[in-house]
Write a structure and sequence with these properties.
The chain contains 30 helices and no strands. By secondary structure, the chain is mainly alpha-helical. Among the domains are: about 230 residues, Serine Threonine Protein Phosphatase 5, Tetratricopeptide repeat (Alpha Horseshoe), CATH 1.25.40; about 80 residues, Serine Threonine Protein Phosphatase 5, Tetratricopeptide repeat, CATH 1.25.40; about 70 residues, Arc Repressor Mutant, subunit A, CATH 1.10.10. The protein is elongated and about 85 Å long. The chain starts with a helix and ends in an 8-residue tail after the last helix.
Length: about 550
């Protein structure tokens, strides 16, 4: 058997088992010996794309288009032109991508064939309508694509149609219907009916949209599933990088800042090598946020600038950075402009909490109250747990600024309970600090000191230097240290809620062995020996609230 025949067979086998690097190497070797046919060129293009060899993928898809053209198969040529156009567009090369998509349409126009490729070419049109904010038109386009997919039993097209329909419904404000469409797309993805490129697109888009609408439960579940999918294919580049970004965002919320930073850095490396992917802007922004929270302002500023360069607007982080730098006037101007220019309710929900904080720093309580009221309205309208927590925190902080300490305590206790249920230790610590200030105004010095101590312990463990310094100033002395790390506190809260080690592991994206080790450390640090004693400690120290 000749070497080129062996390489071709090995490359095809590797492609089938999704060993992308071997498929790329072996098919490339075979191609050098004797030019590949259209089908194998498509395989080679896909393998190149999935391992991040974008220029090579472009070359092989281009050759596949030409090869199918010479074979008088315009439908297959149009299919390859579509994937090339989509790949170029996804990495930000809109003009080149649009050119190839236009060529795909022209190729189909030369035939009278009814084929799934006609449905695929509706996808860019639907994306254009989404970019224009026309949810109704986008929904119609994607629904038509899905119908064509059903007619031809094409799972890729059906999934892309469901994905686009869900996005359109989100734009229309029909979040529950949108999520239902996402779930439909994910059923096909998780049952392995869908090709790798479409699988990655659906995973990343659904997670992004779930985070956009603050559906943290789905975001965490699908991120865990994406992590497992990527782990089974270690050569993946574009989706593995985006997977790390999503994971880093979840880790930040959970208070695992060091792990979040490491995941964001790894994502940044993957998304810039060998070529730059658009998602690198999200990795840059996340790293900027972590640096800001730690008081590392120069690094934060540099990364906000980089995020903006790659298409991720640095909001609201940059405005909060200006506030923390003492440039309150600049922060006010920035956040006012952002809020005034933003019409999307979900984007407003991201900006308004920062607006409340900045306006209070500027002693503009009236503007802070207006922003908090707008946030309360959005939370009631969208009915999302995360937004209810944010809104309660914002309202409590405004009540405190208005010298309504008693009312503030009640609202802030609600905010703390909501953040605790979500599992967000930093946000919970910010609320504890506010409760401490309110209790001090009410003359309850002991409770105030306890709340300040608990907040300071979390800030210290997270290395949140600006927050820790603020609490020290409030108290006038350094607060006592916490014996538990943020991760151990998360484990303890879940154990106190009655969850098994397996359930805790699933919630925190850990192995059961790691959870057992954390629990052992908790027992040792607290001088206890049972889960019931750990639960008692959690309730005694108000790490969880008694059930009603």
């Amino acid at each position: 058997m000749s070497d080129d025949t062996s390489a071709l067979r090995t490359g095809r086998e590797a492609y089938t088992r999704q060993d992308w690097s071997v498929a790329y190497t072996q098919l490339s070797n075979a191609d050098r010996q004797e030019p590949l046919g259209g089908t194998d060129l498509e395989r080679l293009a896909v393998a190149a794309y999935l391992i991040g060899e974008d220029d090579a993928a472009t070359e092989f898809w281009t050759r596949a288009v030409n090869q199918w053209g010479r074979s008088s198969d315009p439908v297959s040529a149009a299919r390859c032109a579509f994937w090339l156009g989509l790949a170029l567009s996804l990495r930000g090369e809109q003009v080149r991508g649009g050119g190839w998509l236009g060529r795909a349409q022209k190729l189909l126009d030369t035939t009278g064939v009814d084929c799934p490729e006609r449905g695929y070419l509706l996808v860019p049109l639907g994306l254009q309508r989404l970019a224009e904010g026309d949810g109704a038109a986008a929904r119609e386009v994607f629904s038509t694509a899905a119908v064509i997919g059903e007619r031809f039993a094409d799972p890729d097209l059906i999934s892309l149609g469901a994905l686009g329909t869900g996005h359109a419904l989100i734009v229309l404000g029909r979040h529950l219907d949108g999520v239902a469409a996402f779930d439909e797309a994910m059923i096909r993805v998780t049952s392995e009916e869908v090709s790798p490129i479409v699988t990655g697109i659906v995973y990343c888009a659904v997670i992004e949209q779930c985070q956009r609408i603050f559906d943290l439960r789905r975001s965490q579940e699908w991120t865990a599933a994406l992590t497992r999918w990527c782990s089974a294919q270690p050569d993946l580049v574009p989706y593995r990088g985006q997977c790390l970004v999503h994971r880093a965002e979840i880790l930040q919320l959970q208070g695992a800042w060091a792990e979040s930073m490491e995941a964001a850095r790894r994502a940044h490396r993957r998304l810039t090598q060998p070529t730059v992917h658009a998602a690198v802007g999200s990795a840059s922004y996340l790293m900027a946020e972590l640096h800001r929270l730690r008081g590392e302002f120069a690094q934060a500023e540099k990364l906000y600038t980089e995020a903006n360069k790659w298409g991720r607007p640095p909001r609201p982080g940059l405005a909060l950075l200006r506030m923390m730098q003492g440039r309150v006037g600049s922060a006010v101007a920035c956040i006012r402009r952002e809020v005034d220019e933003t019409l999307d309710p979900l984007e407003q929900a991201r900006l308004l909490p920062a607006c409340v904080e900045i306006m209070l720093a500027a002693h503009d309580v009236a503007s802070a109250r207006a922003a908090a009221a707008a946030l309360e309205t959005l939370a009631a309208r969208l009915d999302i747990p995360y937004l209810h927590a944010v809104a309660a925190q914002a309202s409590g902080s405004v009540l405190l600024a208005e010298s309504q300490a008693q009312n503030a305590v009640a609202v802030l206790r609600e905010a703390w309970e909501r953040w605790n249920l979500i599992g967000a230790p930093y946000e919970a610590a910010r609320v504890r600090e506010l409760i401490g200030r309110a209790c001090r105004e009410l003359g309850d010095v002991d409770t105030a000191r306890m709340e300040f101590d608990l907040a300071a312990a979390t800030y210290r463990d997270l290395a949140a230097a600006p927050d820790l310094e603020r609490v020290r100033t409030e108290v006038g002395t350094e607060s006592s240290a916490s014996p538990l790390t943020p991760r151990e506190l998360n484990v303890l809260r879940l154990v106190a809620a009655g969850k098994t080690n397996r359930a805790v592991a699933e919630d925190l994206f850990l192995s059961e062995k790691t959870v057992a080790r954390h629990l052992s450390n908790i027992f040792l640090k607290l001088g206890i020996s049972s889960r019931s004693a750990a639960t008692a400690y959690a309730y005694e120290h108000r790490l969880v609230e008694p059930s009603a």
